[in-house]
Structures are given as structure tokens and as C-alpha cells.
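Hi P.,

Sorry for the delay on this. The queue was packed all week, but I finally got your sequence through. Input first:
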Amino acid sequence: MGKTKKGLFQKSLDGIEFLGNKLPHPATLFAILALLVLVLSAVLSQVGISVEHPGEEGEMVEITNLLNAEGIQYIFSSMTDNFIGFAPLGVVLVTMLGIGVAERTGLISALLRGFVLSVPNRFITLGLVFAGIMSSVASDAGYVVLPPLGALIFAALGRHPLGGLAAAFAGVSAGFSANLLLSGTDVMLGELTIAAASVIDPAYAETMNIAMNWFFIAASVFVLTLIGTWVTEKIVEPRLGSYKGETTEGDNLDGLKPIEKKGLIWSGVALVVGLVLAALLVLPENAPMRGTEGSTMDQIVQSPFMSSLVPIIAILFFIPGLVYGMVTKTIRNDKDVAGQMSDTMASMGMFIVLAFTAGQFVAYFNESNMGLVLGVYGAEFLNSINLTGIPLILMFILITAFINLFIGSASAKWAMMAPIFVPIMMQLGYSPELTQMAYRVADSSTNIISPLMTYFAIIIAFAQKYDKKMGIGTLISTMIPYSIFFLIGWTIMLIVWMLLGIPLGPGGPLEYPN
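Then the structure:
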């Protein structure tokens, strides 16, 4: 038999996969970019390019040569500091110490399973998508727990199991940047955004905090849950049709064990106590971590509390995780706690390697003044072609969504893009907070159709339990409706948010007062 002729869609998927696989590892990519910055700094410094510093009237900025004697001295003397000073490194590791205990004791898994299994049958799709979106608070745990659970639940209800898998996968991945709570994603991206903003306006950057998008991402949870539910029931399930196969022998939908339920209750009590104690640090008038200037809201937003969200988030995960582990006996002594925290840090090894090369790239880019110069020239170019306002935001979202097909890591992409786009957007009057939110909308929406996404192969393995012929093209074609409607719906929401002038988060304005 002759080979089946591939259509344009399948050829496009093959092309994305081929090009993506040709890209080097993100750590290698940053090393290459760092070397490229060094070479460009030497070349451009000879051209005599200069711009007026946007934050310092009358001060001219030129490209600094990093390959002359002083530059080479800087490269070697700053290498360790560039690594240690990489904005997300410390804050991500501190956050993951707390989140890791909650995950490794089984708290996150039990919470997700308990929620989904307690949802009434008629709301199960909505519950799956919602749980998937909320799972991003525990980083990647949702990828492992929810898609297979969603497939099992749909099969038990006589619905196509791949519909349940798709609904959960859409929530976990395409809704990764939406959450009612602050998560490691806010920490990681926020620190990169603050560092990029400091190139233009260090004083403004000091007023920023990692909760800069919280209002918008919290509201997004409900919008994306409704979109994901509608796409599942109106597009994906009808396309899948009725399921003719059999569930794998041994599959079951056992609920939580009594000890797990007890653990959830006590960890919930611990969380409430933790939240009350945290509130007492900032809400009372003379609270120790409350600001002292401005209105009541200003004293809360511009406060030591908001500047300390990283350790607070870590503690609010650590305490319930510790209590759950003690109740369920996954923690018996302090050695178990230390072991779980150690395992979490071990799992962060690749991030640490990435942080080393990314730290060099970001530091060289800033030291050379290329980011500042590019920001000024980029803003002038966009002004000259009248690409501002909503069309500019739409263009940025589309560019990010396309790049995400080839580079899956949100932090790696933003480490490359933030030093360029944040200054440009600030020059045009748009806040770093808005630029970051536009990036998050695009980055999350196309995760589920990128064959290079880290967990894509795992999702295919889950799906092949119910369809042996499931491959990359089939899974992507199943997930494309989610990607399209999430991207459109979320973008419209962001535009409406802009038109209404609602802050994106505490101290998260839409405009930058340049």
C-alpha cells in the first residue's frame, strides 16, 4: 500500500517538530546568545550608536564593548555574581522548598483527586478544567495527576475517556498562567520582569512586586474554565464520538482513603491559621509589615509584606504540607522533611544549570547597554509605523504564541524576551506588568499544541491506553480548539481589561508614566 498523502496541517506539524528538535537545549541556547551579545557589543560599539537615556534627561548611552580589556575582565570577574544574581534563581528555589513539601507528602495530589471526585457528574467537565487550571500552583503536578484521572472519570460515566483527558490537559497546560493563588510562575516571571524594567527605570522597578498580575489571573480562572468546558462538550467530545474500546484492566476510581481525608482536614486548618497569621502581619493599622506612607491601600500594596511574598508563599505551602505529611505518616521525623526538601532541590538541577547560562546572557545584555538602546530604537520604530495601543498588544501576543511552539519553557522564553520587549513597551507608555500579562496569555494558550512541550510525550502515553494509534498529530488536532478559543477569549478579556482601566494586580498599573 502506498503512503497516505499528508495534508497541509500535518505537514505544518511535522515542520514545527523538525525545527523545534533542531534547536539546542535552552541552557545551550543561552550560552550561544551570551556569546552573540559579546560579539555584537564589540561590533556595535565601533559604529558609535548612542541614545538619550529615557530615565535621565540629557544623559547619552552608548554600546559598551565587552571584548576589550575592561570587558574581558568584567566577563570573568562577574561570572559568579551573574549566576547568583540571576533574578529568578533564589526566589524560585525558596518558593519550591515550600511547594515541594506539599507536593511530596501527597497533599497536592490528594487535593486534586478529592476535588475532582467530589464534583457532581453534570459539572465534571467544569470541575476537571478548573482543577487543571488551579494545579499550576504546584508547578507540574497537574500533568501527572489530572489527565489520566479525567480519562478514567469520563470512561466511568460512559463518555469518551479522551474527552476527559483533553479537558484536564487543557486546564493544566493552556491555563497554566491563571490561578486564584500566587504560584512559582508569578515568582519566576515577575523577577525577570522587574529586572528588565530596572534597565529603564530602577526607581519604578523597586515599586513592583510579584503579585503584579494577580487580579487578572484570578479572574481568568473563571473565564478559562467556562471556555474549556464549552470547547470540551461542544467541539471535542462530538468530534471524538462514542467510545468503543474498553478501559484498561485494573483502572479504578477509588476515592480518598480515610487517612488522606483526615490529612486534608488538618492541613486545611493549618492553612487557615497560616493565612490569619499572615493577614495580621499587614492588615492591622500598626502591623509590623505594613507600609507607613499614603492611603490604607498604599500602605498594604507598597509594604514590606508585598516585598516578602516569596517566603510567605513558601511558608503557606510548607506548613499545610508538613501537617498533611505528619497525619498521613509520609513524614515521621525531621529527616523525612529534610529528605523531601532535598529531593525537591535535586529536581531543580536543570533549572539551576539554565540559570547559570541565562544569568550570563542577561548580565551581558544589560552591561553592554544593548537592551536600553534597542528599547529606544524599537519604540521609535513602532511609533513611526503607528503600531501602538491594542494592535501592538495583539502583535506581541501573536509573536509570543508562535515562539512558544518552538521553545516550551516559559521562564527561558521570558528571560530572552523580557530584556527586549519590556523596555520597548515602557518607552511606548505600557507598564511592565501589562507586557508580562500579555506574554503569559500567549505563552499558556499554545502550550498544548507544541510537540516540544515537556509533558507532551507523557500525555500521548496516557492517551494510548484508550487509542493505540494516538500520535503527535492526533493529539494536537484534538487540542487545537482549546488553544484557539483560549487565545481568543483570553486576549479579548485582556483588551476589555485595558479599556476599563482596571489594575492587573496590587500595584500593577496598565500604563507606565514615561
